[in-house]
Amino acid sequence: MIDINGFKWEAQFNDMSIDNNFLAYTDFKNLKIYIGNEAKGNDTQLMYHLRHEVTHAYLYSYGFKTRESFTVEELCDFIGTNAEKILALSDQLFKEIKEQE
Helix (H, G, I), strand (E, B), or coil: what is residue 39? Predict the structure, then answer.
């Protein structure tokens, strides 16, 4: 369980073969981050998807929900404020996953 701005998120592997368009997915309603089983064994792909989905979770948890566009200033403010935390959380999840293998 990970905490982002008071929201309790769960990250887990899932069979993503149901929808081949996605190798990872952030479920905003249930506060879950799903990473496709296909990413197991490919550290580069796993880290990419972790960072991508954790960023979605941060956006949601800080009130951006599912907005599709941002001003340059909003984007720079968000990255400037949250990039280190997003990368650290992604690294933490990556290490936890690798320890379970």
Answer: helix
Sign of CA dihedral 66, 68, 74, 79: positive
Q: Which amino acid is at 90?
A: S
- Residue count of the chain, please give it: 101
- Structural domains counted in the chain: 1
Inter-residue contact 14 to 49 (CB < 8 Å): no
Q: How far apart are CA 80 and CA 35, in angstroms?
A: 26
Beta strand residue intervals within the chain, DSSP E: 2-4, 7-14, 24-27, 32-36
Interatomic CA distance for residues 74 and 65, integer angstroms: 14
* Domain of residue 41, residue span: 2-100
Question: Per-residue pLDDT for the chain (101 aa), expressed as one digit of tens each?
Answer: 899 999 999 998 888 765 556 788 899 999 999 998 888 888 999 999 999 999 999 999 998 877 789 999 999 999 999 999 999 999 999 998 888 87
